[in-house]
Amino acid sequence: MTKLSVNINKLATLRNSRGGNMPNLITSAKDIESFGGQGITIHPRPDERHIKYQDARELKDVVSTEFNIEGNPIPKFVDLVLEVKPTQVTLVPDAEDAITSNAGWDTIKHKDFLVEVIDTFKKNGIRTSIFVDPNVEMVKGAAETGTDRIELYTESYALNFANGEKEKGIKPFVEAAKMANKLNLGINAGHDLNLQNIKFFKENIPDLLEVSIGHALICESIYLGLDNVVNMYLHRLK
Ligand SMILES: CC(=O)[C@@H](O)[C@H](O)COP(=O)(O)O
Ligand SMILES: NCC(=O)COP(=O)(O)O
């Protein structure tokens, strides 16, 4: 079974745009779980433009499914994760000014760093995952870091799928996943997955353990919820 972990970064972006506490992340996380979501993902960035470090602390007390914290393991991120102790930490090599994640780790070049930081998290009972491009050499490098899982960076798949080239898009992911299976690495995936492209991805990736989905899921929730809410307003305005 593939678990769905809902990334709530975008809810925090919306909340922060007005100050105040709407939408409320704690209520939203609980609701997502009550609707069947099997995990909550957050990706606090150094500028805290969406998820704030304090959100991570508060969510820890209410998330009863899997809590996944993603981010670049700079010292303050490492301290936060060690304090919060989520189920899983996903290491992402994103630059401070990145609009969103845009590359996986070079697991060969950064092997020593990754070995050290993964060891720290694992000693604290936190499952580790590292964000990688669908590249067999990077998967082999990931296995050497001691990580429990990899997260396949799916932007290229999503782009190819949207361009009508799903077979071309999925191919490197199938190869990377087969290598991960061979090396006993668990497989997660994420970035730009959506209601259109998720089924084909799931059907083709052997032993896909978890997907984390945020941007599209929140947009789709707006598209699919607008009809209902507009009509609720109209009803009250009668
Ligand atoms: C690692 C990954 O792909 C996601 O965490 C994605 O980067 C979401 O982050 P933003 O919501 O900041 O775009
Ligand atoms: N790890 C990927 C994630 O959490 C969500 O990415 P996206 O769906 O917001 O692109």
Automatic annotation (TrEMBL):
GO terms for biological process: pyridoxine biosynthetic process. The record marks 151 as: Transition state stabilizer. GO terms for cellular component: cytosol. The active site is at 43 (proton acceptor), 70 (proton acceptor), 191 (proton donor). It is found in: Cytoplasm. InterPro entries: Aldolase_TIM, PyrdxlP_synth_PdxJ, Pyridoxine-5'_phos_synth. Its EC number is 2.6.99.2. HAMAP family: PdxJ. Belongs to the PNP synthase family. Catalyzes the complicated ring closure reaction between the two acyclic compounds 1-deoxy-D-xylulose-5-phosphate (DXP) and 3-amino-2-oxopropyl phosphate (1-amino-acetone-3-phosphate or AAP) to form pyridoxine 5'-phosphate (PNP) and inorganic phosphate. This is Pyridoxine 5'-phosphate synthase.
